Amino acid sequence: MRSKQPTIWDIAIKLNVSISTVSRALRNAPDINPETKKAVLDLAHQLDYQPNTVAASLRKNKTDIIGVMVPEFVHAYFPNVILGIQEVANATGYKVMVMQSSESLDIEKHNLQAMVSSRVDGLILAITRETNDYEHIVAAQRKGLPIVFFNRIVDELQGSKVMVDDYKGAFMAVQHLIQTGCRRIAHLAGPENMTIGRNRLNGYLDALKAHQFPIDESLIMHCDFVEGRARRCTQLLLDMPNRPDALFAVNDPTAVEALICIQENDLSIPNDIALVGFSNAPHSTFVTPPLTSVVQPIHEIGQLAAQLLLRQINAPQQFIPETHVLDTTLVIRKSTRELI
Fold first, then answer.
1. pLDDT reading at 60 higher than 60
2. Fewer CB within 10 Å: C terminus or N terminus of the chain?
3. Which CATH class is domain 8-51?
4. What are the boundaries of the signal sequence (predicted)?
């Protein structure tokens, strides 16, 4: 059975002083007798007294807690963004409440309600792959909850947004494949309902067009961040009579699934099929061969999202939503061929 938490009432009764005296002593107010203050602090330490943050937040209408909701923890991207968020939050006296939605719209809705009920001061959000109805998010915004979106951006939602130049990164990746001699390049694509999926697809298409390559719709497979689907899509591509000689994957987890499937078919990477991912996840250097990938400034994404949210929290009337698009680079490893 959980023991009762000591309160300022307990301290006041034991010392035979008023509650206001205890409160002033705990706040280090200047207008209190030093001996009384010491007695209060000593007893608070002895009782292991902890301030009631819920009551304090109700008094000042502020919890000093920001929420972060991400779709999954399986891969390194979202945990690394959270580290960037925590760095900014901790430096400014805020605590961070983290929830993950398991790529489920229902869980996302439940978690968002929990965040609102917990009175977080604001929320940093990356939606699930299932999220195609945004009313729960809009409803939270109508209640005055500041929200900053990152990574999985939806154009229809209002608010500050932090993303990378997905289009440029994809264009750069496909152009690299073309420059290394690849001529039949497939794309393992992301969800079409998300800006991230559309922009990376458009970068792929425009890179092909820029080099006068024909667009073959059969080479575009939507994996949509569903675990296991990339392996199935890769197998369909390998079973084609005229199979591709390169794959551009929407992210590194998708690329790694493709890599495993290619090797299970006794094909060589990059000699038979070259492979490029997106995000430069830590495990991209551990696979064999190491994965060529588009690098995102993950830590900076978290830092910037937190900075934007805190600015909105602290000056809601003056704040104007901002969209920040960060640059990407391409790191070339052994999963692609040498330049010709």
1. no
2. N
3. mainly alpha
4. none
